[in-house]
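Appendix B. One record, verbatim.
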Amino acid sequence: MPFLIALGCIILILIAWIRTPKGKGWLGELKVRLFVGKTKPQERYVINNLTIRVDNTKTCQIDHIVINKNGVYVIETKNYSGRIYGQENHLEWTQVLNYGKVKNKFYNPIKQNKTHLYHVSNLLTENLPLFSAVVFIQGNTQFINAEGVYTLGELRRLLKSDNRSTLSPKQMECAYSALIHANDTSISRKEHIQNIRTNQQNLSNNICPRCGKKLVLRQGKNGSFMGCEAYPQCKFTKNI
């Protein structure tokens, strides 16, 4: 009987934790991890939870990377419930809950993952095809107007698609080795979260979160915007 009581308490604690933002994020990443499978040498290489140190003040955490004959897929997972509203060029997207009574803002995951692609490209020794995939685990993508956003089913089709960019087994292995070599397991979650907050503060001060250069006022076909001074090497933009 004491064992059953203890087991019941553990299950209740686990259920409560899974309902927290951290727990939901972990569960979403687990689903994608199971979905994409494991590394099969010469066929595909999979890296989960890659954490790299960009410089002394920045870290970058990437949920999943899949390398196959088509190229390098950089995957960001989101396990948000409710309706998600987002535009590709907007800085923030909106989560709507409780029939519109609750609205939460979060950083545009398209921009977030483009930063990940930028850092991944800097780690690779060869110019390989890079693909961004933002996956909403709960499939609530119908109100998102942006390229590169997928449900789990759409991610499967993306990874299995047959395009003309064919990497050799040696190219796949070299890309995998370069990224694994850059993985810094000494970076704690606390340090990474602090670095995210620092980057958010820098963004509000018009400092590019991708490369650390200044954001300067530019003119485009749709009006004024803030763009990185390192363009075209860095193409980060911020709406005014």
